[in-house]
Each structure stands twice: as C-alpha cells, then as structure tokens.
Amino acid sequence: MTLINYFLIGVIFGFFVELSANAVKKWGEWPFKPSEDPYNYVMRLLVVLLWPAGVIVFIYGWIKGYRNTKR
Questions:
Q1: CA dist., res. 39 & res. 22, Å (int)
Q2: What is the pLDDT of residues 28-61, one digit of tens each?
Q3: For 16, what's the count of Cα atoms within 13 Å in the CB-facing half-sphere?
Q4: Which residue from 17, 34, 46, 49 has the fewest beta carbons nearer than 10 Å?
C-alpha cells in the first residue's frame, strides 16, 4: 500500500467518523459540552494517521452499542 493510499483511506475514514459524530451531536447524545469537546483538530489528524486502530475501536464500539440497544 502506498503512502497516498494510506492517507486517502484515513481521510475517508475521518470523514465517516465526522459524519457519525455530527449525527450523535444532533441527536443530543454527545456526552461533552461544546467547550470540553475532545474531538478537535489534533484528534482529527490522529484519526487520519492512525486509522487502522480507529477502525477497530469504531467497530468494537458500534457492536457494543448495538448489543446494548437490542436488550
């Protein structure tokens, strides 16, 4: 995998995470106040650079949340 592909996948994953975060904020389920929101530009950069770990954490959290809502 070339470096360009790695960053492209990271940007696409970051865009997906951004859409998900905005949806959760719109639903009113975001646990942080706007002034204390940890999802800032540094976090966005880390999502793009460390997307393989982010994918694993995102899928784990999604499955865990899905299981909790089915009960």
A1: 11
A2: 766 777 667 677 788 888 888 888 988 888 888 8
A3: 13
A4: 34
pLDDT surpassing 60 at residue 71: no
Do the Cβ atoms of 52 and 10 come closer than 8 Å? Answer: no
Q: What is the pLDDT of residue 8?
A: 92
Measured from the Cβ of residue 24, the count of other Cβ atoms closer than 10 Å reads 12
Residue with tokens 């904020």: 25
DSSP reduced 3-state for 30: coil
Q: Give the count of alpha carbons within 13 A of 28, CB side only.
A: 0
CA distance 44 to 15: 9
Q: How high is the pLDDT of residue 44?
A: 82
**Ramachandran angles phi, psi of 28, nearest 5°:** 85, 15
